[in-house]
Specification:
27% strand, 2 domains, Aminopeptidase, seven-stranded mixed sheet, PG_Glycine_Bridge_Synth, 12 helices
Amino acid sequence: MHVSVEPISVAEHLAFVRKQRAVSFLQTPGWGRVKTEWRSESLGWYAGRKLVGAGLVLHRPVPRLRRYTLAYLPQGPAIDWGGELGDWLDPLAAYLKANGAFAIRLGPPVRTHAWSAERVKEGLADPGVTRLTELPGPQADPVGALVAGRLREGGWLPQSPEDGFGVGQPQFTYEVPLAGRSEEDVLRGMNQLWRRNIKRAAREGVEVTVGDDLRAFHELYVHTAERDNFTPRPLRYFETMFAAMSAEAPERIRLYLARHQGDPVAAAILVRVGARAWYTYGASSTAKREVRGSNACQWAMIRDALREGCEVYDLRGITPTLDAGDPQVGLVQFKAGTGGEAVRNVGEWDLPLRPIAYRAFDLYMRRREQARRRR
């Protein structure tokens, strides 16, 4: 199939997204307006005059290479990944190189392996197992293996680090399948602790509302960052995120806020595109943790996703650790309690378009990572 790549308008891009069952929110035009430090453009793949694929490209210059940009397609593009990849990616490379990119980074929205919650639970209980990849019998996806092989053959370079978290999107995620399931089915799939916590939140009178009180969310979020030792994003980032994504579609983004006797105790942000919903940001107070506001928020979001016909509730990134001594294992335990499955995706890959510039960029990124680790 002969496919050409050319710029498309925001309206054309959105029209394509609306026709798909699953497109990452990171591949919507609105996300380009959220990432203000990048220049964004929408590209379309045409077979004749028919638009058959679309992608959001984020362009960013890097120090000492300002003549060129890194072209980044997070969790995209939205193309037929089961087809002949050269037909799709070669015209993308030609277009981006002609327009000043020194490299392309993309993250195919394709999984390679999945582990059930029960298998993850077994691994967490086994001191001899320290990583998801050490668990026997994962569910393998042949499309994912094919995509990884074709990318490698095409000169693409894998960028996923050992812990699954690089400078881009995580390679390991946690997902709760919703298609064909009822609320009772999902509850039965959760572990006993999760079910007990959801019931306790209801018994304690925790109320979850959907609203627009971003200041209340941000106060909880900054508190969470101080407690859990990460750098919070400013309030302005979330204001931009809500404005850009709400303008794109009214149902695209929502803020859930849990209160107990009037006090905010937890908050979370849900994003939905088509039949997929993502838990993107969460926050909770240290006080009143016993009323389980975070579990109440998650359950409210899952129930809404179910009612709206979503097929997947995506809890986003985890590390592949199952080591009891690793501080990240708590995140795996929390998300595995929802049932569902841990997923390994193809990960992010780079294609150098200008090798000298790419080597300089790679050296810069390595030095930056070394400096970060020393801090």
